Amino acid sequence: MKNGADMQHLASLSGSVRLSRFDAQSRLLLRALMSGASGAHRALTVLHRQQRANPDFSLRNLIQALCQDEIACPEAQIGPLVVKPNVCLFSASFKQNLLFFIYLVHSVLPKTTIFQLLSCLSQESHPNPWITALCRQLERKLGTHPDEPLYTNACCQRLQEFSKRLVGSGVTGGWAKCFSSQTVSSESQSTFDVDELGAQRKRRGSFVHLDSDIEETGRQSKRMKLEVGEPVSSEEETLKATTLGGSESAAHAETPTSDGVCDVLPEHIKVSVVQIQELLENQAEWDQNSTDVFKVLNDCNPSQVEVLCNMLRLPDLPEHTLTKLCNSILSLSPDLSYSTASSLIKSLLLEKVLVLSEPASRCLVTAVTSLCSRYPRPMCHALIGSVLEEKNIGHPQAELLNRLIEGCLDSHYRLLVLQMTFRTTWSEAVLSIIHSLLDSKPVLNEDVFTQFTQQLVSQAPNLTKSVKFAKMMLTVLSKYSSHVTAEHKQSLSSCLMLNETFLKKSLHAALKRITHT
Predict the structure, then answer these.
(1) Largest CA distance in the chain
(2) pLDDT of residue 194
(3) Which of 300, 318, 310 is nearest to 361 (CA)?
C-alpha cells in the first residue's frame, strides 16, 4: 500500500503517460477535446486540417487507443491499483466533448468502433448522468435502443422523490408524471399547469429542509427537461444542449435548430457549419487554408443557405470579423450563385446598414464595397433595394449607397438602382442617392426617362420646399435636356409651379431654354 503522496505522484504521472500512448495526430485531437466547452468544435477544426494534410487519416486508431486498458489509481486513492479503459481515466468534460464530436462525425466511423467506445464508457462505477444521456443519444443515432430514455434509473428515482417532496405528500403530479415509467410516453411531454405551478411556488417555503442532494437533483432536472420533459426540434439540439450545459450554451444551441430548420441540412453541411462557427469565434485560429470550409456554400440550395445563415447568426457577427469573412467568400471558385450571394449579403450586411446612426466603419465599408464589386446584381437586390424600401433611412445609409454607386456599379446597375427609386417615397436621403445616380450619367432610354418624369411630377407636391429636389430637377433640365419631349416639358412646367425654393427662377429659365425641332 502506497501513502497519499506516492499515490498523488502516480496519478499525475499516469496523465502524462496516457497522452504519450497516442500518436502525434491523435494527441492534437485530444488536446482540442480537453479545451473546455467548445472542445468538440475545436476538434472538428483540427480533424479538418489533418484530413487536408493527409486524406487517409482515420479516427479508428484514436478510438481504439482510448479503448485500451490502462492501470490507474483507485478513485479514492486507497486500495489496490485498478485496470480501466483509457477513456475512463479522462475528465467528465473531455468525455462529453468526445461524445459530441463522435456524434458529429459518426458517419465516417464503423459502428463497431463506436459501440466499442460506448461499451468502455458503460464500465464507469459511478456514471455521470450527462455522459449517460450522450451515450444513449448516440445509440439512438446509430439505430439502437430508440425507446430507451436518456436518464438513468438513479436519476429517475431521485427526481421522483424530489417531485413528491415538492408538491406534497401523496401527490405525484408535475415532474413525477415524466418519470412514472422507464419509457418516454405521451405523458412525459406534459408541463406544469399554471395554477399548479403557482400553488407549488406558494408551498416552496415549506420544504427548506431538503438536503443538498435533492437540491442538486432539482437543478439537474431543469437542464434535463429538454431531453425528457419537452419535445425538441432535432436530436442535435438535444445533444448540444446536453453537452454544453447551462443557460448560456442552451441559448447558443437554440437559434441554430429553432423550429426544426436544421433538419433540412445534410450531415456534411452541418459539420461545415460547426467548422465555420469555430472560425468566426476563434480569430487566432483563422488561416488561409481555413477558408476551404466555405466551399460548402456552393453545395447549398437557396433554402439551405438561409438556414445556414440563421445557424451562423450572421446579422450578429462583429464588424471586425467582416473583412476576413468577405475575403473567404471572395476567394471561392466558382463564384456563388445569384441566390446564394443574395442570401449571404442580406443576412450579413442589411441589418448592419439599416441601424447605422453615424458614418459606416471602415470594416463595414470594406465589406460592402468588396462584395458589391464581385456580386453587383445580388448587392442591388438584397441590400440597396431593401435599404431604399425603408421609410426612415438617413444620411449614413445614403452616404454608403453613394459610395457603391460611384465606385462599384457600372451604368447598367446604376440604371437598375434608379428604377428601384421609382417604387419608393422620396425623402431627403433618397434624393441624395438619386442625385448621385444622375451625376454618374447612366444611359436613360426613352421609357425609363418617361417613368422618371412621371415620378418627378408625382413626388413634387410633397417636396415643394426641398432644395435637394430643386437641385435634382435642375440637373435633369440641364444634363438630360435632349431627352425632354414637348409632352415632358408640359408636365415639368406644371411641376415647377409648385416649387417654393430660391431655385424656382433658375428652374423655369432652364426649362424655357429647352427647344424642340
Answers:
(1) 116
(2) 37
(3) 318
Greater model confidence, 507 or 160:
507
> In this predicted structure, what is the pLDDT of residue 289?
63
CB-based contact 347:309 (threshold 8 Å): yes
Best mean pLDDT range from 99-113, 169-183, 411-425:
411-425
Measure the CA angle with vertex 216, ends 214 and 222; round to 5°: 105
CATH of the domain at 281: 1.25.40.480
69 DSSP β-pair partners: 85
64 and 162 in a common domain: no
Domain extent at residue 65: 4-141
Which position has the higher pLDDT, 92 or 291?
92
Residues 159 and 135 in one domain: no
Residues 174, 273 within the same domain: no
Burial 492-513 (b: 16+ CB within 10 A, else e): beebbeebebebeebbeebbee
Number of domains in the chain: 4
Looking at residue 66, what is its pLDDT?
A: 87
Specify whether 134 is located in the same domain as 20: yes
Q: What is the mean pLDDT of residues 40-62?
A: 79
CA–CA separation, 450 and 473 (whole Å): 14
**Nearest Cα to 72, choosing from 62, 64, 80, 61?**
80
Whether 344 and 329 have beta carbons less than 8 Å apart is answered as yes
Statement: residue 306 has pLDDT above 80: yes
463 and 428 part of one domain: no
Summarize pLDDT for 214-240 with one digit per residue, the tens: 334 344 443 333 333 333 334 444 344
State the pLDDT at residue 93.
Answer: 85
| 291 domain residue, yes or no | yes
Long-range contacts of 414-419 (CB under 8 A, 24+ apart): 414/440, 414/442, 415/442, 415/443, 415/444, 415/448, 416/377, 416/380, 417/380, 417/384, 417/385, 417/388, 418/442, 418/444, 418/448, 418/452, 419/448, 419/451
